[in-house]
Amino acid sequence: xxxxxxxxxxxxxxxxxxxxxxxxxxxxxxxxxxxxxxxxxxxxxxxxxxxxxxxxxxxxxxxxxxxxxxxxxxxxxxxxxxxxxxxxxxxxxxxxxxxxxxxxxxxxxxxxxxxxxxxxxxxxxxxxxxxxxxxxxxxxxxxxxxxxxxxxxxxxxxxxxxxxxxxxxxxxxxxxxxxxxxxxxx
Length: 186
Prior knowledge:
By secondary structure, this protein is of the alpha/beta class. The protein has two domains: 5-115, Rossmann fold (3-Layer(aba) Sandwich); 147-184. Helices cover 52% and strands 12% of the residues. The protein is built from seven helices and five strands. A five-stranded mixed β-sheet has the order 2-1-3-4-5, sandwiched between helices. The N and C termini lie far apart (65 Å).
């Protein structure tokens, strides 16, 4: 049985595009490419799980960069160990990393830690920015609807003459917002 060079591409949201990663993986001789649109923070990634179940000794998994495989150091190391235990090579193109060598394994560990550190810094700066904005009186999230609109929507809802879709169209409230206020008002 011939060894296979698998590619794995992932983006975090449905709005993002996989084309760039897929093009890079094709240029790097990946015979079969698995791709999914799912956040890397989710433990359950069906396409990645499927790929991992197919791996055989001598195969290779190619990714464009480490962040495509996992979003935390623990996750990256766990997946890397699972791949390695099967005798499969892990290649990260951006970092020029090959885990079949001792140096590659050491570099993988260091890069995984640095990637996690970078994500933590971004998260920390975001939280600091939000706190700073709140201290200046700015409030995050969507603007709340005015009381008049909410009262009108509740009156229409309680009148039982209109569907929730009709109420949405008349008031501009989303279905979830409408039901949030219905629930609050008892």
